[in-house]
Specification:
Blueprint lengths: L3 E4 L8 H15 L6 H19 L5 H16 L5 H13 L8 H8 L4 E6 L3 H11 L7 E4 H4 L6 H8 L10 E5 L2 H11 L2 E5 L14 E3 L5 H7 L1
Parallel strand pairs: 1-2, 1-4, 2-3, 4-5, 5-6
């Protein structure tokens, strides 16, 4: 039986690649840099690299926010303040909240049947705005953001802090759904709850992190939950 469902946000419910592309394009234009396809793609690669470092515990969240711009602007040979770029990016990213196909319908179907929580390493000011403006806030019983908890997924302390905020929580009745093996699935395993990998493109698992379940479409989740 499942009672608590924890959802990652970016690339699980929110279409983050689209939001990222729109936001970084606004940053580049703001500072007089042409938002070419190759430059936007390169930023995405750098951003993913920096987030990987965060999940591995090799950099802090604060270092990540500026490091990605330091690397990008160094490669472009332009003199732009990383902190200024981060401020523009944060505002732009918060204004974009496209959803993964079927995300709203999924939450609507699960609402009232399960206790639903968001768990994210994203920046608080960005995620708060996106959750509110997208209308997803009405489905969540709670939103847990690493910036506020003091720890980031997959650190078990992130989950322990979240669980402590849920009355009479029982981890045997919980599952986490997310796209990241290193963040969501490993985090769920560290925390002792069941895990469901959202893997829409069927990406091969090249890690030793094995999820309990896997889905390719969000519409598969209600049926899975009923079986557990």
């Amino acid at each position: 039986m499942i009672k608590y469902v924890f959802f990652d946000l970016d690339e699980t419910l929110f279409d983050f690649p689209t939001s990222e592309r729109l936001a970084i394009s606004e940053v580049l234009v703001k500072f007089g840099i042409s938002p070419t396809e190759s430059t936007v793609k390169r930023y995405s690669e750098i951003n993913r690299y920096c987030w990987d470092l965060l999940e591995l515990g090799r950099i802090t969240k604060g270092e990540l926010l500026e490091k990605r711009f330091v690397i990008l602007f160094s490669e472009l040979c332009v003199n732009v303040s990383p902190s200024d770029a981060q401020a523009v990016y944060e505002n732009a990213l918060g204004s974009h909240h496209p959803l993964i196909h079927g995300a709203r319908e999924l939450l609507s179907e699960l609402y009232g049947k399960y206790s639903i929580y968001a768990v994210t390493n994203g920046t608080a000011i960005v995620q708060d705005r996106r959750i509110r403006d997208s209308g997803l806030h009405k489905y969540f019983d709670g939103v847990f953001i690493s910036e506020r908890l003091g720890y980031a997924k997959p650190d078990v302390r992130f989950f322990e802090a979240a669980f402590a905020n849920i009355k009479d929580f029982d981890k045997k009745l919980a599952i986490i759904v997310g796209d990241s093996l290193r963040s969501d699935i490993l985090g769920g395993k560290n925390a002792g709850i069941r895990t469901c990998h959202y893997n829409p493109v069927g990406r091969a698992n090249e890690t030793d992190i094995m999820p309990d379940y896997e889905i390719k479409k969000l519409s598969e989740l209600p049926g899975l939950l009923k079986e557990l």
